[in-house]
Amino acid sequence: MNLIISCELTAPPSEIGAFRNLTHYATVFKKMDCLVESDPDTVDFYYHWLKQNYAYDFVKQFVNKREVTGIRLNYDRIKRLTFNNLGEMIFIVSMVR
Hints:
Layout: E1 2-6, H1 16-28, E2 33-38, H2 43-52, E3 59-64, E4 71-73, H3 86-94
Helix pairs in contact: 1-3
């Protein structure tokens, strides 16, 4: 199963630690593939941002928007990923079988 995270949720105002914790939980405990969804012209920016901030450990790869299926965390619905809403995001991921 894929966990597809919108690239906008990886950068400020989102908290990089919350992103890393979410991808860690999804990868280790739920055996999900964490994918970051972005436009082809922004992949380099977000890749370097995640690598520079040590948050790329549990990201399997970058994908184009709407290229793959899975559980999707969109920037349209969630404006930022922080420690305040991390529990809710982990709960959503935990409900996946």
